[in-house]
Specification:
disordered N terminus, 164 residues, 2 domains, single chain
């Protein structure tokens, strides 16, 4: 663990395995390295609670940061809605996905549904192998959920869907 002191502000942070934490142990950046809305608010609250009482922060700067937060939140919501709209456009289309099946063939099939869980989008795929629909022991089509981000190519509706 290495302590790093910011000479401009006098605050110290600790680095453990590359993740920075404040001297109180609060993580600054998520493992993925991305800042989200909660991280932004934590930083703003930390700034406000640790400011020098003899030199209070300019209120216009705080208002500017809150405006940035509001913009970030609106852009995040817009991105989620656009992603959902794009995903629903895949229903009935044949898609190629990251990864392979148990036989080493590329994951592919027809999109039969979209589900949204928080900010995560999943596509339900009627699976195909070697150009034929996969079926289970009961003769029903094999359906599998994938993260929307796993879709790498859209081929149209080349493979006919089977009803279950």
């Amino acid at each position: 663990m290495a302590d790093v002191i910011d000479t401009s502000t006098g605050t110290s942070t600790s680095s453990i395995n590359g993740s920075s934490k404040t001297n109180r142990g609060t993580a600054i950046v998520k493992k993925s390295g991305e800042l989200d809305q909660n991280s932004f608010l934590r930083i703003l609250v930390a700034q406000m609670s640790n400011q020098d009482p003899t030199k209070p922060k300019d209120p216009s700067e705080t208002i500017s940061q809150l405006a940035q937060f509001t913009s970030l939140e609106q852009l995040t919501n817009l991105n989620t809605n656009l992603s959902f709209s794009g995903a629903t456009g895949l229903i009935g289309k044949t898609v190629l996905l990251n990864g392979t099946d148990e036989k080493g063939n590329a994951n592919m099939g027809n999109v039969v549904g979209i589900t949204k869980n928080g900010n995560n989008l999943n596509v339900t795929i009627q699976m195909y192998s070697e150009g034929k629909p996969k079926v289970d022991a009961n003769g029903k089509a094999v359906l599998k959920d994938f993260d929307y981000k796993d879709v790498v190519e859209v081929a149209g509706s080349l493979i006919p869907t089977t009803t279950t």
